[in-house]
Write a structure and sequence with these properties.
Elements lengths: L3 E6 L6 H11 L7 E6 L4 E6 L2 E5 L11 E4 L11 H12 L3 E5 L2 H7 L7 E2 L6 H7 L4 E2 L5 E3 L3 E4 L3 H15 L1 H11 L19 H15 L8 H8 L3 H12 L3 H19 L4 H7 L5 H12 L3 H8 L12 H7 L2
Parallel strand pairs: 1-2, 1-5, 5-6, 6-10, 7-8
Antiparallel strand pairs: 3-4, 9-10
Helix pairs in contact: 1-5, 5-6, 7-8, 8-9, 10-12, 10-13, 11-12
């Protein structure tokens, strides 16, 4: 298996959690050939924050042949970023490395011009600053992460886990990313469009009812689902349900249902020999043509091409279901 080299740039004032996220997500044996390389301006001690510091074995040369460069959050002083870091990031992006930031790491990518003309995010408290200081960047401070292809950015702290799992899902499929999520005891999938921070006026019990409705919907994806049906389960009006659902997830109810169906289809394509028509029926998309349409719109590929890429462990359709399929069939 080809090693995928990940350079993790540890800058002065680096967030211990953000740096640790990359090691935890990409280092387990199940992480399929990732090699994590922490690096800094020079090898040696790096001052972190919150009383935690780092000893880094590599300098910026670790970025020269990295397949992915990740910049964790850091506390920068006087808005100043070492020119050597700016040059190294610019060079890595120019030669085609995948560029990733967590939290304030977006400021380093922006300083290198990597985010120019792109949509990006950072911690919601820093988003206005990023937008003001780098007007060429379209800053969206209301989402968990943004995927622009070669360049990906995430909000603060825990959103970094969501972005790392998203990268693993892109590289190796849903089954592998779910396995890593189980090791981390993390949610297997929170969409990038989900809100970072929503001032709530709802009482907490109503939020719990909505969570229960989402869980119920995942178990009934093969059935007709509409906003009125979901609202009845949540015991609120359709109008209230739709409005609050967008606040909670960043998607309309039917956008969320569609993506949940596509994700279940991805797993079935990865691990079963069901035909495209059968998969479409099982996930509630009706026909193979409908499944192909939504796969192309959401994933930029076809079900057949997805299976060729990620369907390495196909099992006969009559075999015992996976844990995910059991979850969807339960209830």
């Amino acid at each position: 298996m080809t090693v995928h080299k990940i350079a993790v740039l540890v800058m002065d004032g680096a967030s211990p959690l953000d740096v640790g996220i990359t090691a935890q997500c990409f280092s387990p044996p199940e992480a399929f050939g990732y090699e994590v390389r922490p690096c800094a301006v020079r090898a040696g001690p790096v001052l972190g924050r919150n009383g935690l510091n780092f000893i880094v074995d590599r300098g910026l040369e670790a970025m020269e042949d990295a397949d992915t460069v990740i910049v964790p959050g850091f506390r920068f002083r006087n808005r100043s970023i070492d020119p050597r870091i700016v040059d190294a990031l610019r060079d890595a992006a120019f030669r085609g490395a995948r560029m990733v930031s967590i939290c304030e790491g977006a400021f380093a990518l922006a300083a290198a011009g990597v985010l120019d003309g792109l949509r990006a995010t950072t911690h919601w408290r820093m988003a206005p600053v990023l937008a003001r200081e780098y007007p060429k960047v379209t800053v969206d401070g209301g989402v968990l992460f943004v995927d622009e292809g070669q360049v990906l950015t995430s909000a603060g702290m825990a959103a970094g886990i969501d972005l790392c799992l998203h990268l693993i899902r892109r590289d190796h499929g849903v089954q592998v990313s779910n396995a890593i999520a189980r090791i981390l005891v993390a949610a297997p999938y929170r969409s990038g469009g989900q809100s970072q921070f929503v001032p709530r006026t709802l009482p907490e019990p109503l939020g719990e009812v909505f969570a229960a409705t989402r869980e119920w919907a995942l178990r009934h994806l093969d059935e007709p689902l509409s906003v009125p049906v979901l609202a009845r389960h949540a015991k609120v009006s359709a109008r209230t349900f739709g409005r609050r659902f967008v606040e909670d997830t960043g998607y309309t109810p039917m956008q969320w249902i569609l993506r949940a169906r596509v994700d279940l289809a991805r797993e079935l394509l990865e691990r079963t020999d069901l035909g495209v028509e059968q998969v479409a029926s099982r996930v509630g998309l009706g026909t193979g043509a409908n499944l192909r349409l939504h796969f192309q719109r959401i994933l930029g590929t076809s079900p057949s091409e997805y299976r060729r890429t990620f369907g390495g462990n196909l099992v006969p359709a009559g075999s015992p279901p996976s844990a995910t399929e059991e979850f969807h069939a339960a209830g």
